[in-house]
Amino acid sequence: MSADRGAGQRKAVRVRIQGKVQGVWYRGWTVDQAGRLGLTGWVRNRSDGTVEALFAGPADAVDRMLEACRHGPPSALVRDVVSEPEQDPGMAGFEQRPTA
User: Which reaction does it catalyse (predicted)?
Assistant: First the structure.
């Protein structure tokens, strides 16, 4: 029974990615990666130069996405990834949103 614990649990986190993450296809890359992992949520640029995202889905897939965000697409230079627990928005799909 303990082997299935991580697979069945859902997790949601809000993430702020800092560094050279705008103008390097970070949002498009995030949409692709989240889709491959079966996550729901959104990603957007922020006016302060960071990228913000909300990831929701199976806990192991969210954890894999957080690790991927530390590297990002080839042109990105990620300095930091800060995440905090968030309520699962219960939405379908993963979308790119306008700058906040």
Answer: an acyl phosphate + H2O = a carboxylate + phosphate + H(+)
